[in-house]
Amino acid sequence: MTKMQIFAKTVFTVLGIYAVVTLYRFYPGRYAYRPDETPIFQELVLLSAFTAVVGFIVYFTVLNNTRLSSKLAGPGPLLESATQAAWLAKSLRVGLVFIGLMLLPNSMPVIVKTLKLFFLIRTTVNDIVISKSIPRILERSYREWFNVLYDFLKALLALYLICGAPHFIRWQIRHTLGQQANKTGIQNPSIKKLKKEPK
User: Into how many domains does the chain fold?
Assistant: First the structure.
């Protein structure tokens, strides 16, 4: 890969992650369009179809974007395998930390609520055991629980990206170098030796 292809790959990855988070933010099931609740089965069908569309976007922008990045950036001087791995690691790290910082401000309320929840667990369990009733904090519709789960997962994703997403970067490097090896027919020994993210 060339430097421009690596930058294009980073751009596709960052845009793909941001698109997934944004699409689920505007997921139709998060909002009630009528007073009565939508049946669970209908909600599951809608969620499955929506997830299939998102999965299609993730596949071509995050998991398998090497071909798109090559077409977008065009030809150029190829880098050696070790140099490719180093440039890809640095480029992805910067892009992922950037997108994590963009997601973090909206995730701060969820992080604070999650920390408060640890202090409320004992009280909530006591209320359930003693009064045998569901506390008000747990009395939510599945739409509200979907919003809570979405915000919580977005907060975890933001923190993981800010930490540099090391597992994802290592996987991307192995995957990219593996595709290059399959394309050229030459097995790259650095793929097997890649256990740590290059710096």
Answer: 1
